[in-house]
Aminotransferase
Amino acid sequence: MYADRINALPPYLFAAIDESKSRMLAKGVDVIDLGVGDPDQPTPSHIVESMCQAVRDPATHRYPSYTGMLEFRKAAAKWCQESRDIDIDPVNQTLTLIGSKEGVAHIPLAFINPDDVVLCPDPGYPVYKIGTQFAGGEPFTMPLLEENGFLPDLDAIPADMLARAKMMFLNYPNNPTSATADGSFFKEVVEFAKDNDLIVVHDNAYSEMVYEGYKAPSFLNVNGAMEVGIELYSLSKTYNMTGWRLGFAVGNADLIKGLGKVKSNIDSGAFDAIQMAGITALTDSQQCVSDMNRIYEKRRDALLKGLQGIGLDVKPPKATFYVWAPVPNGYDSMGFSQLLLEEAGIVATPGVGFGQHGEGYIRFALTQSVDRINEAVARMEKLRL
Ligand SMILES: Cc1ncc(COP(=O)(O)O)c(C=O)c1O
């Protein structure tokens, strides 16, 4: 019944976890969900207010422009200038997205022909590989290993794959490992991309979720990056707006144009009222972002203390709201997450769900209060691992 591209999708590894979670909830267990990367706090009220006003204006009720409102793209370009010191032309180098996932899923359709190879990080956000497959391309795994700081080893990519490779996805600050990359790595990537004729798509969805003064750099800050790549930004995690579906792509004008061509034939752009709320989010005070980061930092510290207390070797992440922890000896990632759920009522995501190189790890999302995290830790202590 299904098309080959659907039949070729990888097995849904979280099905067993979802099933156990439903079983536990049905039994009345007080489940602590640290699984999904979805902020628990509401969208800041000034952004909600801005949407309420915009939606009352009938001008927002019509089809939006597929490239996005120029005012939103100007706000995005200004935000890039102020937060990242990158000069972006809002007309030719900026495109509104219906969430960054949309950009990830659609960009291979614009540039990948059947049998082209796309270099995808593993562990990684699953849509890099799936978007590639939907476009008829072949994902090639770049392992993100702890000994390399969870950065890909570009020299390890085999020459035959490199010859067929046309695109590379990167994502720092990283989901799921929470690793960060600095300018020198991005510089290496730009040179590599130029030498091998690669398009670079840097997914910067966690750009603002940072701790202790860390600032996540833009890939586009590196000399020459604008010639080879684009960067995707998201309002989802930064402003607790996952449900609103808003993000933007910036970078090389030809790449932006290609992505725009796909969009103009598939979707009709993001709702104007949402883009107007997005303008408020990007141009108003950014205090709400630092307030959220302080909340996540306290949660991070509570979880880390607990995990280290039960003997897991976890380092404090500088960015993202994920804690990527090695599973205890004697477990694989699926087995340990089943144990956490069935014996402690805690949902966490098995690393293998992000690819084979995620095996041996588990991801906790900091989407519960410090009290709930402390309760989760107390339950883990009782497991006597
Ligand atoms: C690495 C990464 N990229 C992109 C997304 C998609 O974000 P959105 O479509 O909400 O902007 C996510 C969501 O979890 C993610 O983890």
Summary: The domain at 4-43+287-383 is CATH 3.90.1150.10 (Aspartate Aminotransferase, domain 1). The first strand starts at residue 32 and ends at 33. The chain has a mean pLDDT of 96. Residues 37, 99-101, 104, 125, 171, 175, 203, 205, 234, 236, 242, 247 surround pyridoxal-5'-phosphate (CB under 6 Å).
